[in-house]
Design brief:
Number of helices: 4
Radius of gyration: 23 Å
Structural class: alpha+beta
Mean pLDDT: 78
Largest sheet: 5 strands, antiparallel
Helix content: 25-40%
């Protein structure tokens, strides 16, 4: 007879048995839109119906260009260590200054270009429509 420690399959089944006894991870909750986001989304959908010029960028204290998505979220285009990033991030106020929060993502230029092509090509909208 083999000892359990000598048989890799026995270890695997023992690990599987232990894993099945653990409670399942809770599902991530869907983040609900804040009122400010809903109002902004409504104004954006009205703006989509019209052909209008691109929105002018604003500048933060560091001189980076940004576009407000809502009062608490913005898209910032910035340079870091010589590379360009598109930063989608929540912001907060402290001492009268708007600062970037922890929640968000920085996309490299290549990642942003891929995302942009998926949006422009309609692939993302197609999947959204399929869920609605």
């Amino acid at each position: 007879k083999e000892a359990v420690g000598d048989n890799p399959l026995a270890c695997q089944s023992q690990t599987t048995a232990t894993m099945s006894l653990q409670e399942p991870k809770p599902k991530k909750q869907r983040v609900e839109l804040e009122e400010d986001d809903e109002e902004h989304a409504e104004s954006e959908s009205a703006a989509e119906d019209e052909d209008e010029a691109p929105v002018a960028a604003q500048r933060n204290d560091e001189g980076d260009a940004y576009f407000e998505l809502s009062s608490k979220r913005r898209v910032t285009v910035r340079k870091f260590k010589g590379r360009t990033f598109v930063d989608l991030r929540e912001v907060y106020e402290k001492d009268g200054k708007t600062l970037p929060g922890k929640k968000g993502i920085s996309l490299s230029l290549e990642q942003f270009e891929l995302l942009s092509s998926l949006v422009k090509g309609g692939s993302i909208q197609k999947e959204i429509d399929a869920l609605e």
